[in-house]
Amino acid sequence: MAAKELSFAKKAEYFASNLVIRGIIGAALLMPYRLRVPAVGWVVSSLIAPLAGWRKRIRENLALVEPDMPKDEVEAICRAVPDNFGRTLIEIYSGEAFKKRAIAARISGPGLEALEAARAEGRPVILVTGHFGNYDAVRASLIARGHNMGALFRPMRNPYFNAHYVHAISQIGEPMFEQGRRGMIQIVKHLRAGGVLGILTDLTFGAGAQLDFFGKPAWTSLITAELALKYDAALIPVYAARQENGLDFEIIVQEEVTPSDPETMTQTVNHGLEALVREHPGQWFWIHRRWKGRRWN
Questions:
Q1: What residues are paired with 198 via a beta bridge?
Q2: Are 272 and 279 in contact (CB under 8 A)?
Q3: Rounded Cα gap, residues 266 and 286, in angstroms
Q4: pTM score above 0.85
Q5: Would you call 169 exposed, middle or buried from its count of C-beta atoms within 10 A (0-12, 13-18, 19+)?
Q6: CA angle 189–173–54, rounded 5-degree value
Q7: Is 80 exposed, middle or buried, given 0-12, 13-18 or 19+ CB atoms closer than 10 A?
Q8: C-alpha span between 216 and 198 (Å, rounded)
Q9: Is 165 helix (H, G, I), strand (E, B) or coil?
Q10: Cα angle for residues 127, 129, 132 (degrees, 5° grid)
């Protein structure tokens, strides 16, 4: 949404929030990398998350899908999730310092062989990922390894923030495809040329299918599977798990999804992400309204 289409009150709200974000980022960038990343993680977890109501939303999501989780584990996740978000945000703005960490990340998993085989064959690849760890670490790592990787992104609602955010993610690697008709045309061209495309699909998408995620129905986009089937692309889930030191990553390339039908393939992706989140619950963005507007017994 363009700034001129917003009401005066909404523009003022977005302008003010962007000033706060830019202030935090600017101050953090004056610090050494190894200090700025945990510092911003702390600011977001300890100051912003409580004010923004994020902890309440995390508790609600966990109560829905993990009602028997011990209270101390819930509270630990309430602290870890915004901390990871803060770290991810400042890493994206840290340019070469972040890229060096991502490039140095260990890459493993059963899908790595399929990824390299597709490159050797000139076959397109769709890397499906989610808001886990730092998803941009995957992009930086694979671009450095010589993969022609582009990414689909959704513009932020705040136009003032979006302007510098898009610039920051573009510095990690290009091409970038903006969600919409023009972006889809560019994606098709990229895939037909044998390129690699990264897409995050763990947000609620009402036009998709109601698939299982953590034992509850969640509206899920089928776009990655549909594109893979249409353009004979390998569909491979991939994630960047943050390591214990909070600064480094491991790139986990899950097994290539067997071609079948879009719903079956996408359900396989959901199960793979769920398994990873269960292993590292503080690294997934539980703040999202993944089960939006629905509650089940």
A1: 127, 151
A2: no
A3: 20
A4: yes
A5: middle
A6: 105
A7: buried
A8: 26
A9: helix
A10: 150
Beta strands in 93-215 (DSSP E): 106-108, 125-129, 149-153, 176-178, 196-200, 209-213
Q: Which two tokens mark 63?
A: 């109560």
Which token pair is 155?
A: 């513009």
DSSP label at 180?
S
Q: Which of 235, 238, 232, 239 is nearest to 265 (CA)?
A: 235
Sign of CA dihedral 188, 191, 196, 199: positive
Using pLDDT thresholds of 50, 70 and 90, give the confidence band for residue 295: very low
Model confidence at 296: pLDDT above 50: no
Sequence length of the chain is 297
Residue 50, preceding peptide bond in cis (omega within 30° of 0): no
CB-based contacts of 204: which residues, under 8 Å, 6+ apart? 218, 219, 288, 289, 290, 291, 292
Residues 6+ apart with CB under 8 A from 49: 55, 78, 81, 82
| First-last CA distance in the chain | 37
**120 CB-near residues (< 8 Å, 6+ apart):** none
- Tokens (6 digits) for 1: 């949404």
Count helices and strands in the chain by DSSP H and E runs: 12, 9
pLDDT at 4 over 60: no
